[in-house]
Amino acid sequence: MELIKKYREATSRLILLDYDGTLVNYFSEPGAAVLPENLTRLLTDLLNTPNNEVYIITGRSSIGIDRVLNSLQINIIAEHGAVVRVNGLWKNKISDPCLWKGSIMPVLNRATLKCPGSFVEEKRFSLAWHYRNSDPATGQEISAELIESISRESQAADLKILNGNKVIEILKAEVGKGSAVNDLLEHKDFDFILSAGDDATDEEMFESLADNKNAFTIKVGNGETCARYKFADVFEVERLLQKLTG
Ligand SMILES: [Mg+2]
Q1: How much is the average pLDDT of 241-246?
Q2: In total, how many domains does the chain have?
Q3: 16 alpha carbon – ligand 1 mean position (Å)
Q4: Domain of 159: which CATH number?
Q5: Of 172, 197, 216, which marks where a domain is finished?
Q6: Residues 196 and 236 in one domain
Q7: Is 96 designated active site?
Q8: Residue from 209, 217, 201 nearest 184 by CA
Q9: How far is the CA of 151 from the centre of ligand 1 (A)?
């Protein structure tokens, strides 16, 4: 595989791994998706390899991702890029006072009432409405209604609506995995980039790397993608990490 060869030859590598649906499967209770021991070992090997910069890049909150990583000392891009942890230090990448939450929250609460099993999660810079544990048809219907009812206000407040895997998330339009990656590339040159993800929000990351000849982008699971490779599931990602560290 060309990817493995390029990895071995590279002198400065950037590895960007989404968490849920990419490294581990989805769980109905997000806190249950703890990083298994074998992956902890693989990530530790990657981290300890000279010339590697490894990031977990996720939509999860800082607390939510830290908890499932079992305090693994890895760099993290959380909340789709709004907060980052580099060398153990968390910092905010934006300074949004989030006044918009006041008017969006009641709409999400109404959706929750109409869709049993759904719930709202408030993060530092975003609001997420999760419907993973709801009746799929109801979840689908209410999520479409929800997007419709907040779209005008979102535009006016310069927000974006992420239509993810069983989650609708509202956050500042400037935030995204794409801009987070651009930010990293502005500060350093890499001759090998690996980026893997499974969801709509990962497409922004793939798009921002589309013209980069050193980038290997991988979409995990079904669906349209602008990634260069398609992997069937999290196990294929694990096998790749094994090959890189083996
Ligand atoms: Mg994911």
Answers
A1: 95
A2: 2
A3: 12
A4: 3.30.70.1020
A5: 172
A6: yes
A7: no
A8: 209
A9: 23
